[in-house]
């Protein structure tokens, strides 16, 4: 008599999948896509404010004091220059990173991409699409490239290889 507590092969639970979450509505999808764009825009505004504040502070530091003489040259040592360079590099990196986040969010929203998996799938379908080139078009392109290479004084691709293959088929050794 079979055990009633053992699951039957037909009623075995399906393994969990990645796509088990309920589908998103178009509005939810659009809001999540725009989230990255707005986060990048906010980050960019903050980085611009920080950079502007730093530049204004450096400008105020460069003004001479009220009762200082105009014949004294202020010398900047290499340590101070290095510190300024590191600060400038940090601010530039912050600005570029924030712009990159905003650009990524904008591109994702414009192309209706939500995940990297979607981008990968679309790229694969585009790459697997059959080409619309005919044999005549390919031969015309080869003739055009051969004429360009001749004008530049360059050898056609596969020229030495084709000559070596021809001599190998004839039974001789390739010439050097």
TrEMBL record:
InterPro entries: AIM11. The lineage of its organism: Eukaryota, Fungi, Dikarya, Ascomycota, Pezizomycotina. PANTHER family: ALTERED INHERITANCE OF MITOCHONDRIA PROTEIN 11. Belongs to the AIM11 family. The chain crosses the membrane at residues 34-51, 88-111. Residues 158-176 have a biased composition (Low complexity). It is found in: Membrane. This is Altered inheritance of mitochondria protein 11. It comes from the Eukaryota. It is a multi-pass membrane protein. It comes from Epichloe bromicola. Keywords: Membrane, Transmembrane, Transmembrane helix. Residues 1-26, 157-176 are annotated as: Disordered.
